[in-house]
From TrEMBL, chains A, B:
Source organism: Takifugu rubripes (Japanese pufferfish)
Top-level division of the source organism's lineage: Eukaryota
Active site: 347
Protein name, per record: O-acyltransferase
Membrane topology, as annotated: Multi-pass membrane protein
InterPro entries named in the record: MBOAT_fam (IPR004299), Oat_ACAT_DAG_ARE (IPR014371)
Annotated GO biological process: triglyceride biosynthetic process
Main location: endoplasmic reticulum
Transmembrane segments annotated in the record for this chain: 28-45, 71-91, 103-126, 132-149, 232-251, 263-282, 337-355, 361-380, 387-405
Gene Ontology MF term list: diacylglycerol O-acyltransferase activity
């Protein structure tokens, strides 16, 4: 071989130096999962061998129901169908011209007003509704409220489009070109979408924003479905087990606001709900858009976190609240604050009503995000900003939760003492 | 505004689905750091308030020295200079033609043979050398062995090049074009590099592969230097503290081969040595090539891990052992196995000699990587492969270490019992 010098060095940064701009750390995520499983596996086995299965499914049911023969929360959920059908009926009348736009708006307003106040009244007045049952029912009603609001808006937009003379244009606009269609599905145009089938597809679809033609995946992948189902069952089990064997004793015995478990529960809940459950539902319904969350773990500002951890709600706020406000001439700042107010209201609604305590902690927690966002955005950048966001999640969130838990236990303990 | 439909969905995968191909998780790394700091901060404060500073610097020194007035390991390191000077002297004689190539090879062979056997003999025969002191001295000698081997090879290649008639070509080849030069430095060509200054720059530079003209960074960044120095001090403190307050009692009281601490110690050692210390040295010496490790955390095969976690050694093996073997006509498989054998030999050398026990655990641990690599490569792919690599690191490594620790304690305990 010809003599050579085999040079082997060139100027370059280490990957972990921030200057390198390297950010591919999928392996670290796997490491976290492996560590989580390994460090729990031995504890799990030891615990199982020692105590048997402590997790009590009956006790879980009792979280939802006080009296197994009366299911107030479940009844509430069944009643919710009435509001769905009223919204559909109103839209049909509007499309036929039987209702004027004004009457239609009035019916929708009343329907949604009742939709949001009626379950709250039931939960507040009926003593047989448990906090967990009440919170579940109210969550479902809130989701439905957002969905029906979107349904009303989109159908209104369709009528506005149809009323324009250029009918051809409206038809091509109703099927935006960036959507991908699988072979079998044919596109639906305006009055054709007002069917029970279409309505219930939207009600069950993992989105809050109505569209006449959702992007659909070509088929149901059974393997994908089963993996998501296994994850759902696994995390349900882990969440309930952790809550029963770990959280409740800690809260009862001592109040430690900086406990990490709460944060881990939230992370697992996030994965369980936003990845496993929503992907499961989407796969079943062949719903194509699986962007239920974005890369909030890399957030370098508080604003980025709130815009990316819950995409369905973020999309809804943008499409049906923030942008309409802008179109009506409100400034960006006012519109943004209005979004935070709305979000704060629903956070408070979903916590205060089921617990039957009005403390405004959730509301203030949401509103405190505004100065926090300003502080982090002003003083911290890059990985320091990201660390600050993580710290605010790790410390702030369990703190807010604990305020309620603390007040709830104090309240009920005092009642027990009074009752003696 | 003109009526529109505001479409907001398109077909896409969730980021955490493996199908999305998304792998930017820098935030997860920050999360690990935040969790590490937060979960240790309270413990650290409590411990400090309760016990004061338990970490004993004198005890650390005693790890290296039995008798503070005799420093055998330090003396060994000072003696190492002799071998460096012999190598430089030999190369000078070779360049002048005073030594024939054959005589030069012989002197180098003897020099390096003594370099690797002499410290081992001292450590084995001198009872005042502690295991930690012995391991440190042997590590330094091993690094020097690899460096001098590379020095000898490169100077030989230079002579081979000069001996070719086309002298112009040789000069352009001695300064490869892919290297970047800062303004002030001028390139060195063959016999001009045989100086004490050049030799000691190579001895201290964070690389094992000699080059006549290393890529240099334009200046010493003081901020970068101080950040790395702080990290070095912090991790030194943490490593020593963990070893003193945590590891030793656990090993003494009970043998738990699956303890996670060992793995965390290794991770911290990795960061301390390969990122903080090597970058610190490189910054001081304006050494441009900072690739001391690659993205081994994403390894999906065992081979990828071994090729990427320790780049200086990997580079040396490739340039001075694996490729020369290939050039001499050996097959890929034989050459690869030879690299593993060499690596296994040095692992054993660095562990057995300082502990004065020949158990072959390290040797077998390295050799066991070959079937493991086959198994993981054959049956596991993607994130599953990555998880398997992590598990083999988390479980395998502490297991090997523990075999030695166990044997060492048993041996010394028996000696103490015999001594009574």
């Amino acid at each position: 071989p010809r003599p050579r010098l085999y040079p082997c060095h060139k100027t370059q940064d280490s990957l972990l130096s921030s200057a390198s701009g390297y950010n591919k750390y999928r392996g670290i995520l796997n490491w976290c999962v492996v560590m989580l499983v390994l460090s729990n596996a031995r504890l799990f086995l030891e615990n199982l061998l020692k105590h048997g299965i402590l997790v009590d499914p009956i006790q879980v049911v009792s979280l939802f129901l006080n009296d197994p023969y009366r299911w107030p929360a479940a009844c509430l959920v069944i009643v919710a169908n009435v509001f769905v059908l009223v919204a559909l009926y109103t839209e049909r009348q509007l499309s036929k011209g039987s209702f004027s736009e004004r009457l239609g708006f009035l019916v929708h307003a009343i329907n949604m007003g009742v939709l949001i106040t009626f379950p709250a009244a039931v939960v507040l007045l009926l003593p047989s509704v448990t906090p967990v049952g009440g919170a579940s029912a109210l969550s479902i009603y809130t989701i439905l409220f957002l969905k029906l609001y979107s349904y009303k808006d989109v159908n209104l937009w369709c009528r506005e489009l149809s009323s324009i003379k250029v009918k051809k244009l409206s038809r091509s606009l109703s099927c935006p070109s960036q959507q991908h269609w699988s072979g079998g599905d044919c596109k639906v145009s305006y009055p054709g979408n007002l069917t029970i089938r279409d309505m219930y597809y939207f009600v069950f679809a993992p989105t809050l924003c109505y569209e006449l033609n959702f992007p659909r995946s070509p088929s149901v992948r059974v393997g994908f479905l089963l993996r998501r189902l296994c994850e759902m069952l696994f995390f349900t089990q882990v969440l309930v087990a952790l809550a029963q064997q770990w959280m409740v004793p800690i809260i009862r015995s001592s109040m430690k606001p900086l406990e990490v478990p709460n944060h881990l529960l939230w992370l697992m809940f996030f994965y369980w709900f936003f990845h496993s459950s929503m992907n499961f539902t989407a796969e079943l319904l062949r719903f194509g858009d699986r962007q239920f969350y974005n890369d909030w773990w890399n957030s370098e500002t508080v604003t980025y976190f709130w815009q990316n951890w819950n995409i369905p709600v973020h999309k809804w706020c943008l499409r049906h609240f923030y942008k309409p406000l802008l179109r009506r001439g409100f400034s960006k700042k006012v519109s943004q604050s209005a979004v935070f107010f709305l979000s704060a209201f629903f956070h408070e609604y979903l916590v205060s009503v089921p617990l039957r305590m009005f403390r405004l902690w959730a509301f203030m927690g949401m509103m405190a995000q505004i100065p926090l966002a300003w502080f982090v955005g002003r003083f911290l950048r890059g990985n320091y900003g990201n660390a600050a966001v993580w710290i605010s999640i790790i410390i702030g969130q369990p703190f807010a939760v604990l305020m309620y838990v603390h007040d709830y236990y104090v309240l009920h303990h005092r009642q027990e003492v009074d009752g003696l």
